[in-house]
Amino acid sequence: MTTEKKQSNIKLADLKPGMTVKISQKIQEINAKGEKKEREQFFKGIVIARKHGKEKGGTITVRKISNGVAVEKIFPIYLPTITKVEIEKQARVRRAKLYFLRNGYKKKLKVK
Questions:
Q1: CB distance 49 to 17 below 8 Å
Q2: Distance (Å, whole) CA 23 – CA 75
Q3: H-helix or E-strand containing 42?
Q4: How large is the average pLDDT for residues 86-105?
Q5: What confidence tens digit (pLDDT) does each residue in 47-82 have?
Q6: SS3 annotation, 81-93
Q7: What gap in Å lies between CA 38 and CA 80, rounded to an integer?
Q8: Which residue of 22, 55, 64, 93 has the lowest C-beta tally within 10 Å?
Q9: Per residue in 3-41, is it b (16+ CB within 10 Å) or e — as a string?
Q10: Which helix (H) or strand (E) holds 72?
Q11: Which of 82, 90, 108, 72 is nearest to 17 (CA)?
Q12: Which CATH architecture has domain 2-111?
């Protein structure tokens, strides 16, 4: 199990802006009874930024649109709760940070 975590973190360190990824993360929940339950939660979106390279405090920012509301989540690269990373597609981009996607740029392109 520890080898899977190391491999998934290496994959997470190789992510680049413009990639559409699906990141699965273990989440612990506590019921009303006080019992702990562990489940996997997926977050699928576009990597819009990568900060601090492959160092200890490095992060990636993933953005998705859920029910018409934009959601951004910041994942530390070496987060132990991340179990799996799937790269679905790679877009060709010319920027290191894709913050222009926050302004509804993609939606305007679809209208044209």
A1: yes
A2: 9
A3: strand 36-51
A4: 87
A5: 999 999 888 899 999 999 999 889 999 999 889 999
A6: CEEEEEEEEECCC
A7: 14
A8: 55
A9: eebeebbebbbebebbbbbebbbeeeeeeeeeeeeeeee
A10: strand 69-76
A11: 90
A12: Roll (2.30)
What per-residue confidence (pLDDT) applies to 102? 87
Residue range 17-57, pLDDT digits in tens: 999 999 999 999 988 888 899 999 999 999 999 999 888 89
Rounded distance between C-alpha atoms, residue 61 and residue 24, angstroms: 15
Report the SS3 class of residue 27: strand
DSSP 3-state of 59: strand
Direct distance between the N- and C-terminal alpha carbons of the chain, in angstroms, rounded to an integer: 48
Q: Are 12 and 85 in contact (CB under 8 A)?
A: yes
Q: How far is CA 3 from the centre of its chain?
A: 21
Residue 110 has which token pair? 């679809």
